[in-house]
Amino acid sequence: MSPRDLPIYELESAVTAALRTSGRLIVQAPTGSGKSTQIPQMLLQHGLLGERGEVVVLQPRRLATRMLAKRVAEEMGTPLGDVVGYQIRLESRLSEKTRIRFVTEGILLRQMSFDAALRGVSTIVFDEFHERHLYGDISLARALQLQQTTRPDLKLIVMSATLDTGLLKTYLAPCEILVSQGRSFPVRIEYLPKSVNFDNEPVWEIAARECERVAGESSGDMLVFMPGAYEISRTVQAIQGNRALREFVTFPLHGELPPEQQDRAVARYEARKIIVSTNVAETSLTIDGVTTVIDCGLARVARFDPHRGINTLLIEKISAASADQRAGRAGRTAPGVCVRLWTEREHGQRAPQELPEVKRLDLSEVVLTLKASGIDDIANFPWLEKPEPKALERAETLLADLGALAGGKRTITELGRTMLRFPVHPRYARMFLAAQERGCVRPVALMAALTQGRNFLLRGGSKEVEQAREDTLGEEHESDFFLLMRAWRYADKANYSLDACRRLGIHAQGARQVGPLFEQFLAIAEKEGLDVTERRTDGTEIRKCVLAGFSDQLAKRLDGGTLRCELVHNRKGLLARESGIQQAPLFVAAEISEVGGRGGEVNTLLSLATAIEEAWLKEIFPDDYREVRAVTYDESIKRVVSRRERRFRDLVLEAKSSSDEAPLNEAAALLTKEVLAGRLKLEAWDEAVEQWITRVNRLAEWFPELEVNPLTDADRATLIEQICYGELGYRDIKDKPVMPILKDWLTAEQLAVIDDYLPEKLTMANGRRSRITYAREGPPVLSARIQELYGIEGKFTLGHGRVAVKIEVLAPNQRPIQVTDDLTNFWREQYPKIKAELSRRYPRHEWR
Ligand code: ADP
Ligand code: MG
């Protein structure tokens, strides 16, 4: 079949027409339609790239990037690296002549950080966009910004097999959408009849068994999906060891294989073929001739791991949408069958879709990249989907702690820029830079690898295992990493033999995964010119590197007796019981996990600990380490005390009470705070004081012309501070008089005016003096028992007749029975109605 027969050519004229009039295009067509290989060629052939312009095709996977470039070069009859080239991390095939360039997603963003206008690039194709990788999202946002500013001529094409085009359509508007249905044949889906636990029955054995079972059903090739290199090689072994599958040639396909082996997997053979692949064959690559798919339902998924504060790749169940894509691989050229290694019931419980990476990954690396391009306000970056504000904040805080951001976490530092050279999580970049200085790049690369995988040192082993571990690996008091490193070396030397590993309680498969990661970290370090030679290194230097990368997880033991700790950023935690670092007062935890305890409380468990010395904090983070004299209020003795403190960021490393007296103004301020919060009570601050303040305030309100200032809340605080001034403890202020200080606030004339206008008591016509109560709102109130009011008529006023007074008439028991403005009215209207009842209740009083 010639490539020109591929379904995508239905859209050829529409694609070219759209791009001549518009700068944005969405192409949606099923896998295998010819999007990745044909669209770039169309652009070139129809002159849409101009004289010398280049199309850059963004790919989520390294393996697919190289293979697509190779395939397109072959179709065009040119050597790879000539007109068609590719560029992935640590590897590229390009030349002056290259017009079609396949790249992995991170590459373009990096190019933008030193060539903001992307000169020479005429079109960017965002392939496999449905995968919604973080770098894809961000590259698209940046490309749009570029198109809207300096590069209006730049063309953008977003391609995908399945796509929620709704969201994208509004994001890219105005934008044309071209859809091709492609061609496909029906695929029969089979599930396992019974649920299987892969821990008891290895997934590769089940896969091989199912291959055997369905081999006779068709004459086509088979495609088996496995999560990673290790499972793939076990599956290949299992298939090759199965006599019933002798007629098949079997090939692994994953990113860690050498290119020749990858090419062998997609080549055509006389014999029937079984390809055992990662999810690169899900939508990125199409392998012709497949009619049977065996899907284990698992994939390695990158996800932020809050325990480790980094992204990790762990094996997880794929979504139902992914499973459908995988099944579709069987129906490309003829009707096919897909066997799912899970039950139909289990299928119903799978997530319908993967979360986009922007919602599930740690953002610190991306934030650093954006800051390097001068985007300081990350929250208002034009995201396709905004990340959680918490996730952004976490990223910025971590970057600031690593020394990569300054200026209130806004701008990138020199150190931050240097860290960006390393295409790894900023934590590791920071550790690498420290390691280069301290001559321990190799061990640091190993530690980085160790934190990436699952913990392979099993807990809760038997006495014998514990003993064997101690005999073989020795004890460890400096860093849990060191024990882990020795355990890994032991397992590696033993070639991950199950027996050798079991003896020390090592999860062989977990340990095995560290090797390739270690190699990868070393390769990156070497490429950046770090010294990766093997040499004797000092444990102290390595621990300092751990500190550089994990200073945001510095913990201080609260006491020797318990495992309780305080951490920077105001957190508390418990050192894990199994940690060997039980003696150190200070350490950093490379893992933090929250464990629900009894009664719903959450314990923060700190593990993978490394002992730290305080002097290193000062040495490595001079700006974050401070010695201060702190004056604090000590609740237990109700007294202001003065301390000398050494702090790392917000964590108090040590506080010693000091004999020097606290400065009086600071002490007064602290005591005032306690009084205002109601935790300390001034006995003399009574109702009379409050009445007095209210009188002043009402006077200011009712008679502004008298120019008496009201007493505000701030004045109250000042007043309390005056009372507290000169004292250190509650005992000294408890009974201090308030009134004299309060009265000092006003002049003698003002005091006289208050007594004149708003007196404390009012003398009535019968010569009695009754108390007036002033409130924040409403009129003043005179309260008097009925008997005291006999013979008095009319209304009362204060302030030379300008403020009306309410009269509260009290029963003999001092309870109010009536409120009135006018006593004459009261005697006439209300009194006759209540008199009988009152005289019956209080017969011994006089009732006129
Ligand atoms: P899409 O991107 O729409 O999934 P591709 O452009 O990748 O489609 O592939 C279109 C067709 O080209 C495939 O169906 C396959 O037949 C062929 N093809 C692509 N890459 C290769 C390759 N490396 N080797 C052999 N055939 C290939
Ligand atoms: Mg494709």
Compact description:
With 848 residues, this protein is an alpha/beta fold.
> Can you summarize the main beta sheet?
8 strands, mixed
Using only CA atoms, what is the Rg?
39 Å
Bound molecules: adenosine-5'-diphosphate, magnesium ion
Spatial order of strands in the largest sheet = 4-3-5-2-6-7-1-8
The geometry reads as elongated
Number of strands: 32
What structural class do helix, strand and pairing data support?
alpha/beta
Average per-residue pLDDT, rounded, comes to: 91
Percent helix: 25-40%
| Share in β-strands | 15-25%
Detail the poorly predicted runs: none
Terminal Cα span:
121 Å
Structure description:
Helix content is about 40%, strand content about 20%. It has 31 helices and 32 strands. It has an eight-stranded mixed beta sheet, sandwiched between helices. The chain has a six-stranded parallel beta sheet with strand order 9-16-13-10-12-11, sandwiched between helices. Strands 27, 28, 29, 30, 31 and 32 form a six-stranded mixed beta sheet that branches. Helix 15 packs antiparallel against helix 16. The radius of gyration is 39 Å and the shape is elongated. The protein binds adenosine-5'-diphosphate (ADP) and magnesium ion.
